[in-house]
Write the structure tokens for this entry.
Amino acid sequence: MTDTRIQTGFAWGIVATLVMSIPMVAGVVTGVAPMPRPIPEALVSLVLGDAPKPLRMGLALAAHLLYGGVFGVVFARLDRPASLRNGLGFGVLLWFGMGVVVLPLLGWGVFGTALTPKIAVATLGLHLVYGGTLGWALGRETRGRSRSVSSASN
């Protein structure tokens, strides 16, 4: 895998994370999010304990962007050519992993059902936004690059 593909996957992973974060933050701010707190903040709190909220939120944001970027690289590595459909499938795969590993680790139960089944639905929607954005963006990037290569060779 080329350095360009790694960098592109990481960058689009961060962008997809930012896009996914818009409805997540809106849900938290308006009080409609079923989660008691944002999942990245809950993970940071699990590690740091009762650290000051600005520190927890800053580290949560950094961690969220970092693992969004890393999974962008994973998707770029696995999916050739990238597509919206494959991105949505990747989002479902990430949602499944979060639901059976991360949420139980937080004490929220499988898919958050120890608190409310609404967490499963909300997090699925967020992961579809992430995967869809990632697949669409990387697919466009790949198609654009292949067109410019074929034009240059003519």
About this structure: The mean pLDDT is 91. The first helix runs from residue 3 to 30. DSSP finds five helices and no strands in the chain.
